């Protein structure tokens, strides 16, 4: 299984690959991880060649590439892997991001269409999609785009939560006391990589209005800033910007930035939360492992709505919809609705658990194992 170079704590795709490999192991599939890691910054060709050589030495039955442009720092060179991998070995590619990136960007869209239809080249993955025996997508939108561009039908295998429920979490009251939440307080949680596209800036801007209906409100922003998509220097700058924004808004005392937390601590935090909020600037769908983790923990969760809403996320049934993106006022309206309506929170908790119950790592592993068997039979 070929992945990007970042460790799981800094990259969602690497975290997914680690979890998938563990689940496949329990399902009887032996997985060898091959990180595509440059020997020096920018040396993606050398990394691609080295990864292919490692695969050749392993002589696997199937090669599975986990692909997202951000995982490879937007280099197109990992897309050349099919030319370097062992001939005759089936290739599977999972697309974690698709439909918005082109390399090189200066080539107009119409010029790509005949190449993609003939499966000669793909504008985002170079040779990966054209050369793959099977293409996996984690959500229907990516699948529709693959079909539109290439005419081929990808395999849909949804993701599962990126944090499991801790088997023996600390007492809820203990976690809340440690975070400084009063007995009559309200604990609101954002969980995930803290990146500009996650909408935390707009969330902070919304908090003064929300605090007026619940003075004991506390927001915990749980997640690392440094990621494959946000290098360390940029991450430090962004964290300072958010801390300064909280200070200007007079809410610094009610906001905690935890940085990266191990999964058991995230589970304990979610178990102690009254609500979660994911105000992503592009909207939220079930391809978000953070959303599935919150729902699996029974946390009523407010989410922004993408241009093409996920029909499985239903306002008032399993999520609370934030009707506008990049909009502090819209965030405040939805959070106030959650805070003042305990019956709504109970309904969302039950609906969210029910929805998340259909997304488990054993299910994901079984679907992959069956796919590997099919591509081997067709090889």
From TrEMBL:
UniProtKB keywords: Glycosyltransferase, Transferase
Gene Ontology terms, MF aspect: glycosyltransferase activity
InterPro entries recorded: Glyco_trans_4-like_N (IPR028098)
One Pfam family this sequence matches: Glyco_trans_1_4
Domain Glycosyltransferase subfamily 4-like N-terminal: 22-157
Signal peptide: none
Top-level taxon in the UniProt lineage: Bacteria
Keyword Glycosyltransferase found: yes
PANTHER family, alphabetized: GLYCOSYLTRANSFERASE (PTHR12526), SPORE COAT PROTEIN SA (PTHR12526:SF638)
Protein name: Glycosyl transferase family 1
